[in-house]
Amino acid sequence: MKALLYKDFLVMWKQLKAFLLMVTIFCLLPNQTHFMNQFFVIYAGLMIPISLISYDERAAWNSFSVMLPYTSRDIVLSRYVTSWLCSLFAAAMYAIGSVWDTGNRRLADLIWILALLLLLQSILFPFLFRFGVEKARLYMFFICLIIVVLSAGLVALGSAVLPQKSPLLLLGYPAVFVLALLLSLASVPLSIQQHIKSLG
User: Fold this and answer.
1) Residues 132-161, buried b or exposed e (16+ Cβ, 10 A)?
2) Which terminus of the chain has a smaller tally of CB atoms within 10 A, N or C?
């Protein structure tokens, strides 16, 4: 899998430099800037893996990889690892930005953002590995829209019903994150199965 990650790094290096700079700038912004920083945490964890899958489609990589000593497990895991690494980078930039942010909920919000990212990943990646980026584009739009709307509604409902420092609300942050992480990990074998089906 290390060789696959290195291959992806070489393929994306030119775009990756601009990507990392853009994510760094926007994630360091204060929360008052129309929540662009929160968007770019999610953007970081999804767009690079999706771009890599798109490049593989155009280069017919799936057909070529059959002749190489890489299993579907290696290919799928490399995409998940790329997503997790990009997410960690963006989350670190977002956390650093909290140093000069006047809001005291920024780090708590980061947990919700990462949970949403992991949830999107767990739903979108199996579709991507089964249908490819082009065919799954319509699914991606509707899935993202539904999840974002539901998440925003749940957060607004929780904030309205429970006080800001309610123990239930504070305990909800790690609980939601752990649940999203488990869903993301559970989606890995599903994505592997979908990738195998796409080759057949």
Assistant:
1) bbeebeeebeebbeeeeeebeeeeeeeeee
2) C
